[in-house]
Amino acid sequence: MFDPVIAPSGTLLGLLQRGRGDGTLHALAAPRDEALAALSHCVLDDPRPDWRVENRSLYYARLYLDLHAGLEEIEAHLFSVEDHLDTEECRTGLALSVLGHLAAYGRKDALTLLRRYAAVGTNWAWALDELALRDDDAGLRALAEPVLARFPATADGEAELAAAVRDAYEPRPWRLWGEDPRESVGARIRAAREQGSFDRWQRQLRPTGPRPGWSVRAVLDWAQEGHERGAELHGAAARCLTAVAGPDDRPAILTAARSGPDGARVAALHHLAETQDAAVLDLVEHAVADGSPTVAEAAVTAYRRMSGEAAVDRARRWIHRPDALGSAAAGTLACRGGSEDSPFVLGALRETVRAQGPDTPALYPLVDGAGRLGIACAAPVLRHIYRETASSQLRGRTAVALAATDSGFPTGFAVECLWDCEETTREVAAQYAETGDVRVADRLRRLAADPAEEAEVQTAVRNRIGPDLDLQV
């Protein structure tokens, strides 16, 4: 999948792509045709930087309801020829999730589309998961034959069916089909379920990797062998070292961390970082200076996971470095430093935005740190990140930081956050948005009464407005 092209933040399309609350508010005020075109663009061409962790489906589904939008363009997208040419989940996943929410809101046309796509579409498993949460038993039972027809009655087909049953995210349809009296349905599902259980049992009987009693040398060799064949085992190897290493093994581990081959060196560094060894910080600095790119990156990652006071003290020495270790040091001070480190965190925040833009993952700990340390003069750069970032996850964390640093947040961004695509951001807004704004009171009532809203958001709403307020929309 190509990186999505995100429109400027001041446009309707840019707001909707980012999932900002202002996107919904502007769409409802814009000419209907323009709003529908922008909404369709977002649903059919997923704008999320990482579709696996960012939410948009409920946000877009609510806007479909508010605009009384039809589903013709989603239908054309799902059932186009491209569905058989581009089989990546990300091409249709967002559209299917939107249909799932619309079906939950009572849109029969959305339910019908999901049923049709589950029967014939490439990304049928996703559609089936959506239906498992929303459809009735009769609707799911009707899909048994078209879904099972995907798996030929051959050894390979039965193995694929067993894997599909075993790995199903929502097991409800498969359980229903397993109760079917027909030999071609119920018997196949029951056999597939038994095969899946047998496969798990076999994997448990044939575990790979270190066994109790392995030596430190054997674990390091195992990590190196994995590295040479492209399987990075350093995390597992580091845990194994913790289990098998004794005080007498420390010199060998230090030697591996200082000058061993890459796989063993990375495993040793991670182990020493996890055990907070006194020598690990010097070894991390040495690895960044003279190690391969793989070793240098692993050394920085190992350092990021350290939480002791020694790591914080070393961060104050490394904060001015212009490399990845300097960035890691800034993150350490942001997450674990004291108020005396506020100037360092603020400087790193400003420099990171200037050099890497508002979407870089390096901003996550710095934004959190600005809020944790209450750096009031960070508010302008936080507002910039909030407006411009394409990541709704980062925007939500920025909203939390603004709540701690910007006195104008309750009457400003907190209001639009009530319509944000991320439930955690809506939860923050429910806690801080100024209820004197008539839009806020109405939106709080709607969120409290919406059955699709997350429980945490509704709890925050009810804690804010009190039990005596009429919640009927």
Give an account of the 3D structure.
The protein is mostly helical and 473 residues long. α2 packs antiparallel against α3, α20 packs parallel to α22 and α25 packs antiparallel against α26. The longest helix is centred in the middle third of the chain and has 23 residues. It is flat. The two termini are 41 Å apart.
SSE class: mainly alpha
Estimate the strand proportion.
under 5%
Instruction: Label the overall shape.
Output: flat
**pLDDT < 50 runs, ≥5 residues:** 467-473
Oligomer: single chain
Q: DSSP helix count?
A: 30
Distance between the termini: 41 Å
Gyration radius, in Å = 26 Å
Number of strands: 0
Helix content: 55-70%
Average per-residue pLDDT, rounded, comes to 91
The major beta sheet can be summarized as: none
* Secondary-structure element pattern, one letter each: HHHHHHHHHHHHHHHHHHHHHHHHHHHHHH
Characteristic terms for this protein:
473 residues, mainly alpha, 68% helix, 0% strand, flat, disordered C terminus
Task: Quickly describe the structure.
The chain is mostly helical and 473 residues long.
Give the SSE map.
Elements: H1 12-18, H2 21-29, H3 32-44, H4 57-66, H5 72-78, H6 82-85, H7 89-104, H8 108-120, H9 124-134, H10 137-141, H11 144-148, H12 155-167, H13 172-178, H14 183-205, H15 216-228, H16 234-244, H17 250-259, H18 262-274, H19 280-290, H20 293-304, H21 309-318, H22 324-336, H23 342-356, H24 363-372, H25 379-388, H26 392-405, H27 413-417, H28 423-432, H29 438-449, H30 455-465
Helix pairs in contact: 1-2, 1-3, 2-3, 3-4, 4-7, 7-8, 7-9, 8-9, 12-14, 13-14, 15-16, 15-18, 16-18, 17-18, 18-20, 19-20, 20-22, 21-22, 22-23, 22-24, 23-24, 24-26, 25-26, 26-28, 28-30, 29-30
